Fold:
Amino acid sequence: MDRGIPTEEVLEEMRRADPPVFYLVGTPKGRLTKMEKALIELPWRSVRDGVDVKLLEQEQELYVLTKSRDRVHKERAMRRRQLKWLWRGSRNFRR
Structure:
């Protein structure tokens, strides 16, 4: 699920379900900052070429932090494209 969709109420229902419901949910960045210290101490594990993960078990849940080389390249390209657009716009504005 996308990190903005499930509420804590919905997640709690899924945790208590019988039979158990297993799910993968994007965690809001605010919650990740609470786990930052524990995550920093964990080693990165390579799961395939260009994709690394850290696994953190906490409060009967497993948090998976991923790092993808391709995703980093994609996000950098998106920022460059936006900066070029902003730069062109600022030059037109100054005239």
